[in-house]
Write a structure and sequence with these properties.
This protein is mainly α and about 130 residues long. It contains seven helices and no strands. It has helices spanning about 5, 10-15, 40-50, 65-70, 70-75, 80-95, 115-130. It is elongated.
């Protein structure tokens, strides 16, 4: 037997679980219109750089594909993880009216990362003294 205090909440639980999935409505109203600077998918991919313009055939030059596809779909299309994350970040920025521009890849230091830099520098100097 179901206690009386839970029984009045049970139909609400059923009603919410049987509702249409939220994923279907996820990006329906958040697809921005193309601007003068970014009129189509090809221009968007050229503007963000990092050789993303090679993927214009993947998006089929369709503005809706660019803003509706998630990481799972891009993975199925064969886009590598670094470009997927980068494109989705730039799409998110454009959707939120933030400026989009190319973010250059970082360059590794000759002496390694920040944590071990002192050790590598000391080792390199010791080798060069001899």
């Amino acid at each position: 037997m179901i206690p009386s205090r839970i029984s009045h909440k049970f139909p609400l639980f059923l009603r919410s679980s049987l509702a249409a999935p939220k994923a279907a409505y996820r990006f329906s109203s958040t697809i921005p219109k193309p601007s003068d600077q970014v009129p189509d998918v090809d221009a968007f991919l050229n503007k963000i750089g990092r050789n993303c313009n090679e993927l214009k055939d993947t998006f089929e030059n369709n503005w809706n594909n660019l803003f509706q596809w998630d990481s799972k779909i891009l993975k199925e299309k064969g886009v590598n993880i670094q470009q997927r994350k980068y494109i989705l970040k730039q799409v998110h920025n454009y959707r939120n009216n933030r400026p989009i521009h190319e973010i250059k890849l970082g360059k590794k230091s000759f002496f390694g990362g920040e944590r071990k830099r002192k050790a590598f520098t000391a080792k390199w100097k010791a080798e060069n003294k001899q």
